[in-house]
Fold:
Amino acid sequence: MLLKFHKSIICFLLISSANGFTVPIAHDRVFHVQLSATVDSKEKEVQKPLYIKKVRETIAKKEDYLRGAGVFKKVKTEVAQSMRDQFDSNLMNEIKNTPNYVLEQDDVVYYLAKDHGFCWGVERSINLAYSAVETFPDSKLHITNELIHNPMVNDRLHSKNVNFIEKDENNYKDFSQINEGDVVMLPAFGATLDEMKILDEKKVKVVDTTCPWVAKVWNTVHTHQVRGLTSVIHGKYAHEETMATKSMCETYICVKNLDEAELVAEFMLTAKEGDGKAEELMAKFGKAASLHFKPHKHLKKIGLANQTTMYKKETRSIGQLFQKTIMKKFGPDKVNDHYYEFDTICDATQVRQDAVDELCNMHHDPEMPDLDFILVVGGFDSSNTAHLLEIPQMRGVRSFHINEASCVRPDNTIMHRDMQGEIVEGETLLIHDVMEDGVRRKLRIGVTSGASTPDKEVQDALGQIVLLNNLRYSVVD
Structure:
């Protein structure tokens, strides 16, 4: 039997039944060919492609796929109270009850960022995960990654016998330990489409805690696919969220920062077929692009998306760069034909970055007291927390990113993560002058925390600093 396909489609056909079969075209599309019961030589119609979004939605609509506000109603309120008991902080609540989020206490003045800590998406994710534990006490529970980048939350899940799926050095996960009937949680970052397919085949219950802002990015790259655009993702290509987003794209390339975006823009403007620049670009971005990515072909029409936790101002700069590049290459009247942009930085990320910027403004205001430092609390693997550090660092304000209270050491040193991702140990923390004009000066600390950081964790860290500060004063006295 010979089936005539559109001339641009060449594939090997595997007939699975007399009534129909599914033909894999690529990792993200399938065409379904419907045959009549009687085989004849007539040309059969090929239906429209199933976009990646449709594949994902088909899995998510199944009965054993649990997500959204409607699930776990019986335990939701009780779990919410348990979360408050575990994560709330008396000190942080006291600071937030002051008019300007400023509190003087124990010879310390705290300047708390107006927006900080747990975001709605993280609280939702934790509630769903904890509710699943309470709802399925007799089931084997797994999670495909850390729920969020926070040691306290993940340790709590470990203590409840949730199995964290292990990854090898290539980021491949071992799903062999998952059996039919088990319960598998997807983290706040989401899961790749391949992971969703594997779990669907294993006939397990899936509890999807993916942040809705991440799903919003997936809808954006779906728009790119429909419009025939290559997705340019501002993100770290090996980050869990970006890996999930990549799996929802037809064609993509990831740029980590403005410098990498400039390399791509330069190629778009200057590269010619056969000049070797395509090979140079792929040597740089080979791991950060789809397997079939061809620079000359796939950079003619692009759409911008991003990892939701990236630095907002940098995403905007990258967008402006690509708009200008398209104008230069194709003309201002052709921008809409070759470029599409939709802001996918989540609100929580944006307001937390703005709040830290405000702390830096205060530090540089001659009418306001200088801060001794800004303390940024959050998981070392947390991208949104890392970007909160970048803001004061780039503005010349002394600042430290720690992941837990134990980073503040009894010998007045601090273990912290720098902007390059390196862990630094042994740096002196408290260096302010104890006395000014014969009067003891209070320690002034700017405080913020990542979107996956409980207030309790911030309080514990501040408590360590207060102890150090009191010890210094007692020595002087």
